[in-house]
Design a protein that fits this description.
Length: 571
């Protein structure tokens, strides 16, 4: 009887598929971030029930809810790269045919680390503006709703107010946190004073950062008790949907969503079709994509607290107090991309800008050990027109001072200088051994003044790279990023030194998978041989090359190098 029932069910199922005009099955897998997954699944299953097919073959769709950072780690692992902060994905998490993360910044970050990762489509299917959430009593204290607050005003409150408890979700794992940190950094502006303000703000946020956005939101007050409101979280960059979701539970203290000027990049939920997907599945993905442009999907988004890509919203959307009727529309070019940056996010930001922010956060928040190695060959006396005709060495000293200002107390830093015959026949000289900044910050800061070009000195690059790598390996520590960051404006010119072949062979010999070391080389100016530097770095398992033809941009390149786990050439 059981066999008869199964056969009868199979026949009826086949009959239904035949009635819809399709046979067989194409199984499309979709992984979507939590808040948008139910809406995608609702529309997908409706399409399947209505006879979804590709050229007469039926389409079945499985939509799984997967956290964006977790799936980013899985995609990175498949391409044998890593993203700062995301770690390794569980083995059970498999890369789908279509991925809908909460932000196109994930696509950009992956493309910057893994050039082979080129998903198609990647256009937004929804959006949620980034807002600053504040408990209503706190918002009234800063002038809401009469006063319009901007990111500069918020930055000033964060740096100067003792009563504002600002928080953030780890921007290496959270898109809303990343967008908020970008907005604060842009509000700080440029220059030495701005750098100090930016560092102070990041340090303040880093001291009480939450690993996850849900954890962050759980720190808002749950009682009208003034003491609890005073002690609880009082401001944090989150998504509009987070505020809608929080307030839907009708808590004792509602959250106000502050839409600060200028508007930061919104969460834009790109529809990314993975590179390895075959033609039939690509067609099925395109068919589902068309369904996600329907009024049904817009209403499903509205019920989930999300907007359409154009900024409008469907039925059931619970607009927060003060929310605009429509937010700015989102678009991006992360699917195909062009140039070195591999596309742009919804706000026009490229991977380089993202890496700089992540690098600043990493330097302040994460523990690390770095040996900084500076070229002091004669060519470092070359003038830099874009930096007021200062020498390359002077520009390097400024970049080093700015970088040191960012490094938190959890870091250990050492300083070497190199040219040729700096210590007998050795091309390098140790100025400060790798030491904890808690005790050696002043000594490291003082060493920067010694970055002075050696008249007629050449570039002993190969020997210095090898010896620096060995030095970091000797004192390697677990639980930290152990790295060599070397600055140079030329190619190897050391007749008494080792050959390139010898360097590559020795680096491979020194490589220990249980003790990973990042080798980062920053090329300064137009006299470096990028191909030579790339060849050197590729002999090690981690690191990258960053080349800037304009030495005045070195500070930006430096923090970008910290923020990425591989390398890319810069303009």
């Amino acid at each position: 009887m059981a066999i008869v029932v199964v056969l009868a069910g199979s026949y009826l199922g086949y009959q239904q598929l035949s009635d819809k005009g399709c046979t067989g099955s194409i199984r499309l897998t979709v992984a979507a971030t939590g808040e948008v997954a139910p809406a995608v699944d609702q529309v997908a299953q409706r399409w399947v029930q209505e006879g979804a097919n590709v050229d007469g073959t039926c389409v079945a769709i499985a939509v799984d809810e997967v956290d964006s950072a977790t799936m980013a780690a899985a995609v990175a692992g498949e391409h044998k790269v890593t993203l700062a902060g995301v770690g390794t994905a569980p083995e059970a998490v498999k890369v789908p045919d279509v991925w809908v993360p909460d932000s196109s910044t994930w696509i950009l970050r992956l493309k910057s680390e893994a050039p082979g990762f080129v998903p198609s489509d990647s256009k937004p299917i929804a959006q949620s503006p980034i807002v600053v959430a504040m408990p209503e009593p706190v918002a009234k204290q800063v002038g809401w709703p009469k006063k319009k607050l901007g990111w500069k005003e918020l930055l000033g409150l964060m740096v100067n107010s003792t009563s504002l408890n600002a928080g953030i979700a780890d921007p290496t794992r959270d898109s809303a946190g990343l967008a908020g940190l970008l907005a604060l950094g842009q509000a700080a502006g440029v220059g030495e004073k701005a750098q100090g303000t930016k560092v102070k703000a990041i340090q303040s946020l880093a001291s009480g950062a939450s690993a996850l956005r849900d954890e962050l939101i759980g720190r808002f007050p749950r009682s009208v008790d003034p003491n609890e409101i005073g002690d609880a979280l009082s401001a944090a960059p989150v998504s509009e949907e987070d505020v809608v979701s929080f307030n839907s539970a009708k808590p004792p203290v509602l959250l106000v969503a502050l839409y600060l000027d200028p508007s930061p990049m919104a969460l834009d939920y790109p529809y990314a079709v993975m590179p390895e997907v075959d033609l039939q599945k690509q067609k099925a993905a395109a068919g589902l994509r068309a369904q996600l442009a329907s009024a049904t999907f817009k209403n499903a988004l509205g019920a989930a607290g999300l907007r359409s890509p154009d900024g409008s919203f469907g039925a059931g959307f619970s607009r927060p107090l003060g929310a605009p009727d429509a937010s700015p529309g989102v678009n991006n070019s992360v699917g195909g991309g062009s140039g070195d940056n591999g596309g742009k996010a919804a706000s026009g930001l490229d991977a380089s800008a993202l890496s700089q922010v992540i690098g600043s956060w990493t330097a302040i928040k994460q523990p690390g050990r770095v040996l900084a190695v500076f070229d002091v060959s004669g060519s470092m006396n070359t003038k830099v027109p874009t930096a007021g005709n200062q020498s390359r060495a002077a520009v390097t000293r400024k970049a080093a001072a700015a970088g040191l200002q960012m490094f938190g107390e959890k870091w250990a830093v050492g300083v070497w200088l190199f040219s040729t015959e700096m210590n007998g026949k050795k091309p390098w000289k140790q100025i400060v051994p790798i030491s904890p900044l808690t005790t050696s910050r002043d000594k490291v800061a003082g060493s920067i003044s010694q970055i002075v070009p050696k008249e007629d000195g050449n570039t002993g690059l190969y020997d210095t790279v090898l010896d620096a790598y060995i030095e970091v390996k000797k004192s390697w520590q677990p639980g930290r990023v152990n790295s060599v960051i070397l600055f140079t404006d030329g190619k190897n010119e050391n007749a008494d030194g080792i050959t390139l072949q010898k360097l590559l062979a020795e680096l491979k010999k020194q490589t220990d998978p249980t003790k990973p070391i990042r080798l980062v080389i920053i090329g300064i100016g137009d006299q470096v041989s990028e191909s030579e530097l790339q060849t050197i770095v590729k002999a090690t398992p981690a690191g990258g090359v960053f080349v800037t033809k304009d030495p005045a941009k070195m500070s930006a390149i430096f923090v970008e190098a910290i923020g990425r786990r591989t390398g890319a050439s810069g303009g």
